[in-house]
Amino acid sequence: VWPLDDQPLTAGDVSRVTLERTPVQIKPPKSSVRRLHLTYNRLLLLPTSVCFLSNLEYLDISSNALTVIPDYIMRLTNLKTVVAKNNLLDESSFPKEFERMQVETLNLSGNRFGEIPVQFLKMTTLQSLSLGGNRLKNIPAEIKNLTSLELLYLGGNLISFIPPEVANLTSLRYLVLCDNRIQSIPPQLNKLHSLLSLSLHNNLLTFLPREILSLVHLQELSLRGNPLVVRFIKDMTYDPPSLMELAGRTIKSQNLPFSSCDLPSNLNHYLNLASECPNPKCAGVYFDSCVRHIKFVDFCGKYRLPLMHYLCSPQCSSPCSSNPQSDAESEDENSVPADRLQRVLLG
Question: In the chain, where are the structural domains located?
Answer without folding.
Answer: 232-304
